[in-house]
Amino acid sequence: MKIRYKRSHFAKLLGFTDKQLAAVDKLPQLKALGGGRESYQLGHLSAYRRVLDRHPRREPSRRQLFLNFKGGTGKTSLSVAYAFRLAELGHRVLLIDLDSQGHATQHLGLAAESLERTVFDTLVNGVPIADVIVRTSLAEFDVLPANLRMTTLDISLMPMAGREYKLQRALAGVLDRYEFIVMDAPPSFGLLNLNALMASDDLLVPVLPDFLSFHGLKLLFETLGQLEDDLNHRLQRIRIVLNQYNPTTRIAREAKAALESHYPEFLSDTIVRQCTQFARASSDGLPINAYAPSSKGARDIDALITEMISARVERAMERSA
Questions:
Q1: pLDDT tens for residues 75-121?
Q2: Cα angle vertex 215, ends 214, 220, to 5°?
Q3: Phi, psi for 75 (deg, rounded to 5)
Q4: Cα angle for residues 12, 78, 221 (degrees, 5° grid)
Q5: How many CA atoms lie within 13 A of 125 on its CB side?
Q6: What value, to the nearest 5°, has the Cα angle with vertex 28 and ends 22 and 31?
Q7: For residue 273, what are the contacts with CB-CB under 8 A and spacing of at least 6?
Q8: Are 77 and 107 in contact (CB under 8 A)?
Q9: 62-320 belongs to CATH 3.40.50.300
Q10: In Å, how far are 82, 85, 120, 260 from 302, measured between CA atoms?
Q11: pTM greater than 0.70
């Protein structure tokens, strides 16, 4: 990812003023990295955090899945932005691309088809996740990539014993490395998405403000009910995230009202507003937070992260009460 930060934004990410940043730039360990400039590379963010010990409180490991059986809901843009922003804030994050089209992988500027290994090698060939992970220039952010080699993954898993738990078991070996494991799943149902659901603590369901999205939701909740009955797996949190919302259109307002009526207990407090910069960021191989950090889309991703972390804290307090 070819990301450069303006000086003022870089200081903000570290919780500094420009004056404070100018002072730490003079530290020998940072001066050797080329500090004291008007712009900073992505790798500088990790280095400055490490030298200055400017890390957020570490969160217990959490596996979060972005999934909707209906395509075209902006799921990949949201999941990539969400995962990258968590890492940018200093959390340790693994983004898993589960879609054979490799859109999340490409969204980060990685050449998906040139990669020798993908999640296919982990789930089918038993290659440890640690040997498949692609590291980025942001030390806190790793990617488990995908490409078209994964199109036969469901067929390859079919004859295997314990096929529903392959991803869950593979992740067990790296849970202590990451605070957040974020998965971007394809808009379909099969063994791969069954693996993803069984390996997840939380489910985030992006939906568009139109009534076609309701068909995907109905099927998804029926599937979740079957998982609970047949495999005794219940997700801890489910959030429906209204995406690309434009309150000036009547159909968007009506769809929002319908979601509030039919799924009030699952509807996220955060609404991701319509933002053309999401598409521009994707075409440039950048997350929205890096492409346009002051945009509506970037601010809404921040709000979603705050909501999900706050929900975790509230749940922990309930358990201890």
A1: 999 999 999 999 999 999 999 999 988 889 988 888 878 888 999 99
A2: 95
A3: -60, -45
A4: 140
A5: 13
A6: 55
A7: 244, 245, 246, 296, 297, 300
A8: yes
A9: yes
A10: 8, 8, 31, 22
A11: yes
Residue-wise pLDDT for 211-248, tens only, equals 887 777 888 998 899 888 888 889 999 999 999 999 99
Residue by residue, DSSP assigns 99-149 as: -TT-HHHHHTT--GGG-S--HHHHHTT---GGGTPEE-SSTTEEEE---GG
32: buried, middle or exposed (CB in 10 Å: 19+, 13-18, 0-12)? exposed
**What sections of the chain are H helices per DSSP?**
7-14, 18-24, 28-31, 42-52, 75-88, 103-107, 119-123, 153-157, 166-172, 191-198, 213-230, 250-262, 277-283, 288-291, 296-320
Total residue count of the chain as it appears in this document:
321
Give residue limits of the domains in the chain: 4-52, 62-320
Show Cβ contacts of residue 258 under 8 Å, excluding neighbours closer than 6 positions: 211, 214
Q: What are phi and psi of 149, to 5 degrees?
A: -65, -15
